[in-house]
User: Which sequence fits this backbone?
């Protein structure tokens, strides 16, 4: 049993200069066999393992990660959480996640710094206005909080936005989801890792998967850099590298992997206390607790696994940011990075069984997977444990690309990628 | 960001081009005969290779012509560029 984090444990450890904190998770060598293996130690993968152990009583499981946990897209996103998606299926999926976020720090006994500071989506032309109003109504019918704001209300909610009607893409209005916000992305991975480890899950880092062994249409195990590991169930949560794992198993997925960039500025005093996203001009910005502006850029349009994006993408985003927030014109950018995102043709994820028995995929989150981390893990764990999808992720099966029953969320992806 | 040697215009910045995805996907010869699975395969399923990939590009802010490229997607190095209809130079 791990020691509970509390103000008392903080005080106690202060006396030993914080040098004797218990390790949050162990670093075991892989066993020869597990009941299930999760490939990918990001937020979604660790959450899957956590819920498999907690809700489905599967304790003999492992998470294998080729690098270190949370070192992929979990540590590279812009930490935005919201659930204002258009279609019923998506609303169910993302709001399920948002509801778990609301109690996650308490559940994990780990402060994920979830901050419901609101997310505002701006409209810059009449079609944006119509789309956002439609989405607001759709959200409210699904029980998701959403309000439509006119230009004055946008200005009141976030005073630094330039609402002059003389700019190239003037602000005509926007939507606001007050329950939305941000969380500390690393803490999410670490909190789930700690929780899963406590229940006996093996978290194996620096262990790259080299092959998926199957006999006929059933999986038998995985070849890794730490040797062969036997298992009957494999859950793949490899984000941008999902297709690489799929190719090992002889499957093809409807995914394209592309670099997505983000950048942060030098830290400044609090200036923006919400998250503002703008689809038409492709700019979104929030401020971290350290004071940095966190800015998301777009994807490059070519397939790449290089974790490097193009400068013109960053330039385009910063142009838009500066027109909307002239106050930022003299800020300097501190860091810029890229992550590889796996994009589905309909901009919705896949949480699904496959044609191979015992092989499950949780992928295709594209540019917006972080917000869904707890819900995704919960539903994927359900799918793996029962070999059947939960009703909330039934629509997100691979077969929708055959049946044509797509969940087109390009509009609610909030920024056009 | 990288430079692309357009077979018609010469070397230009990548931002002048539009990526067209995986190359050599044949349009079905008998569309009416296709099953739903075959349609899904043609429309949506992609190899999405990490490594040497054959792909289509369009010089959209230049000559606007389509051509093919062989590129290593793990480091964005271009191995070859060839015109539409030509045989791929590498296997």
Assistant:
């Amino acid at each position: 049993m791990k020691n509970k984090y509390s103000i008392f444990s903080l005080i106690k450890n202060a006396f030993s200069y914080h040098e004797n904190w218990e390790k949050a998770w162990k670093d075991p060598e892989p066993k020869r066999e597990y009941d299930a293996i999760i490939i990918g130690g990001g937020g979604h993968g660790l959450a899957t393992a956590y819920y498999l152990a907690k809700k489905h009583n599967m304790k003999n499981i492992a998470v294998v990660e080729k690098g270190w946990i949370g070192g992929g897209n979990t540590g590279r996103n812009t930490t935005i959480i919201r659930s204002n998606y258009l279609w019923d299926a998506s609303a169910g999926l993302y709001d399920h996640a948002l509801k778990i976020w609301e109690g996650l720090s308490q559940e994990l006994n780990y402060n994920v710094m979830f901050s419901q500071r609101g997310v505002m989506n701006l409209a810059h032309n009449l079609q944006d206005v119509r789309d956002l109003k439609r989405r607001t109504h759709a959200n409210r019918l699904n029980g998701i909080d959403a309000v439509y704001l006119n230009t004055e209300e946008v200005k009141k909610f976030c005073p630094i936005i330039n609402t002059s009607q003389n700019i190239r893409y003037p602000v005509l209005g926007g939507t606001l989801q007050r329950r939305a916000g941000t969380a500390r992305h690393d803490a999410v991975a670490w909190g789930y890792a700690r929780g899963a480890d406590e229940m006996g899950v093996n978290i194996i880092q620096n262990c790259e998967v080299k092959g998926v062994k199957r006999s006929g249409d059933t999986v038998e195990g995985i070849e890794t850099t730490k040797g062969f590991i036997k298992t009957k169930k494999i859950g793949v949560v490899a984000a941008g590298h999902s297709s690489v794992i799929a190719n090992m198993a002889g499957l093809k997925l409807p995914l394209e992997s592309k670099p997505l960039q983000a950048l942060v500025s030098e830290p400044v005093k609090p200036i923006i206390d919400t998250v503002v996203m703008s689809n038409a001009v492709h700019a979104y910005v929030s401020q971290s607790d350290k004071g940095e502006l966190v800015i998301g850029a777009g994807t490059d349009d070519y397939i790449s696994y290089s974790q490097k994006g193009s400068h013109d993408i960053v330039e385009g985003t910063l142009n838009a940011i500066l027109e909307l927030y002239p106050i930022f014109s003299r800020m300097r950018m501190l860091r810029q990075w890229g992550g590889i995102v796996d994009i589905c043709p309909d901009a919705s994820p896949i949480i699904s069984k496959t044609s191979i028995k015992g092989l499950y995929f949780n992928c295709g989150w594209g540019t917006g997977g972080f917000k869904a981390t707890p819900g995704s893990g919960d539903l994927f764990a359900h799918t793996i444990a029962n070999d059947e999808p939960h009703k909330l992720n039934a629509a997100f099966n691979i077969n929708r690309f055959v049946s044509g029953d797509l969940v087109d969320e390009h509009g609610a992806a909030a920024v056009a990628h | 960001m990288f430079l692309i040697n357009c077979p018609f215009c010469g070397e230009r910045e990548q931002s002048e081009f539009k990526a067209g995805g995986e190359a050599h996907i044949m349009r079905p010869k008998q569309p009416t005969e296709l099953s739903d699975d075959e349609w899904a395969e043609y429309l949506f399923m992609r190899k999405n290779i990490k490594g040497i990939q054959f792909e289509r590009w369009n010089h959209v802010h230049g000559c606007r012509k389509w051509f093919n490229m062989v590129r290593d997607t793990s480091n964005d190095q271009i191995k070859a560029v060839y015109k539409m209809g030509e045989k791929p130079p590498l296997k």
